Amino acid sequence: MISSKQSTKQLLQKKIQYLDSLIVNLKREEELLSYRDADSAVKLEFKNETLVRKLEEVDRELWERQEMEVYTEEEIAISETVFERLDEARNLQEKVQELLVFEMNESKKEYWEFSIKRRLKFHLLQSSGLSWTKNYC
């Protein structure tokens, strides 16, 4: 839990740190997906969930302070950095999401191809006479 003693400036800086970590993970995830390493990318996706929860926590704290404080010029400047990072993270997340959907669809195709080959092989074995019940091999 975030301490209520933290200043708005400290919370905004913490938010920037979390966003920077999220951006680094998303870039790495995008790179992994470009190598078709979906397993490693999904592991990073779980780490991102933790970061998103921390960001939500900071947002709640900032929201609760919203009506109590007047923002300083420095806090407004930091807020602009927050919005830039949010845009960058959003754009990266969209790219990663598209790549994840592509990988998921490719996996489905591979599964169906494997499943069809398996059924076909079973069918051919049953109908080709390679069976002890037909008394010849």
What does this structure look like?
This protein is mainly α and about 140 residues long. The chain is about 80% helix and about 0% strand. The chain has helices at about 10-35, 40-65, 75-125. Helix 1 runs parallel beside helix 3 (about 75-125). The longest helix has about 55 residues, at about 75-125. It is rod-shaped and about 80 Å long. The protein starts with 7 loop residues before the first helix and ends in a 10-residue tail after the last helix.
Please outline what is shown here.
80% of the residues lie in helices and 0% in strands. With 137 residues, the protein is mainly α.
Strand-helix topology:
Elements: H1 8-34, H2 38-65, H3 73-127
Q: What key attributes describe this structure?
A:
mainly alpha, 0% strand, single chain, 137 residues, rod-shaped, 3 helices, 80% helix
Query: What best-fitting shape do the alpha-carbon axes yield?
Result: rod-shaped
Strand content: under 5%
Low-confidence stretches: none
Number of helices: 3
Order of helices and strands: HHH
Radius of gyration: 26 Å
How many angstroms does the end-to-end distance come to?
71 Å
Instruction: Give the strand tally.
Output: 0
The assigned structural class equals mainly alpha
